[in-house]
Write a structure and sequence with these properties.
alpha/beta; seven-stranded mixed beta sheet; 7 strands; about 280 residues; 10 helices; Rossmann fold
Length: about 280
């Protein structure tokens, strides 16, 4: 079972891979891109993901937004620059936060966007201090998804919104003869994937009064294929590097494999990509 320190280690030791293969320094995005008929390129698909969540949550200038699992800050900057809402980002990775804070200085956004090293299942923020909790492909790293849901509910003001996108297995009892999901989890520091139905039920149990689950699986297939292609191209380099550097960190050693496993699992319809909006 992966813990907080493992997730932090994963992102600290694999950030260079995202920089080399996912354009992280350019787009400040680690997430999948959402494609539609008008999407011209990968960079635009990444922006589409942020745009999709922003519109789903109906974020406005008066909102205070918590980006729970903020990565290097791309979504936080997007929200602020699009709506003028104040955004607080939190991550377990000090390496990610270093990049994010560099961008705050570079963009002159001190006081508008801020970042902290914090666990999104147990924050230091006061209750009912945010209008929106935003979580893009981060909740999968929570060992107990209910802990995240409980904390999000505590942090939201009455009428506040939780908006998130993430990976959900299709069925709790599904047959995965090649163990693609387990292999994917092991190389991506994910303790467990759950079904969208289970997650929705836990949201309602906690007290969220309306919960909408939207299926964007078809819209991210190009991104999943891109990750697969990047993994295949990087596999030779990775294996060579590992041979000459036997002490390479555990996640960096096998990181390229996650791109293969996620795509194999997707091809077998073992997981979906869902956007969830919940209201307090």
């Amino acid at each position: 079972m992966f813990e907080q320190k493992d997730v932090a280690e994963y992102y600290d030791t694999t950030q260079v891979h995202y920089e080399n293969w996912w354009g992280l320094r350019k787009n400040l995005s680690l997430h999948y891109g959402i494609w539609d008929d008008t999407t011209k390129n990968f960079d635009e698909s990444l922006r589409n993901t942020n745009k999709t969540l922003l519109e789903a949550a109906k974020i406005s200038e008066s909102d205070r937004v918590l980006d729970a699992g903020c990565g290097v800050g791309g979504a936080a900057f997007f929200v602020n620059e699009t709506t003028n809402a104040k955004v607080v980002g939190i991550s377990l990775s000090t390496k990610q936060l270093s990049v994010a804070n560099e961008q705050v200085e570079k963009r002159g956004l001190k006081g508008e966007v801020e970042f902290h090293c914090m666990d999104f299942t147990n924050t230091d923020f006061e209750s009912e201090s945010f209008d929106v909790v935003w979580a893009c492909e981060s909740v999968c790293h929570a060992a107990d998804k209910a802990d995240f849901i409980k904390e999000a509910y505590r942090l939201l003001k009455k009428g506040g919104r939780l908006v998130m996108s993430d990976f959900f297995i299709v069925d709790e009892n599904q047959v995965d003869k090649n163990r693609w999901i387990d292999k994917w989890k092991a190389t991506w520091a994910v303790p467990d994937f759950v079904t969208a139905n289970l997650f929705q039920a836990k949201l309602k149990e906690e007290g969220f009064n309306t919960v909408d689950v939207l299926d964007y699986t078809n819209s991210i297939k190009k991104s999943a294929k891109r990750l697969y292609n990047a993994a295949m191209m990087g596999s030779v380099f990775s294996r060579t590097y590992n041979f000459f550097h036997p002490k390479v960190s555990r996640f960096a050693r096998d990181h390229y494999k996650c791109g293969i496993y996620q795509y194999k699992a997707l091809k077998e319809n073992l997981w979906n990509y869902n956007v969830i909006i919940a209201h307090k």
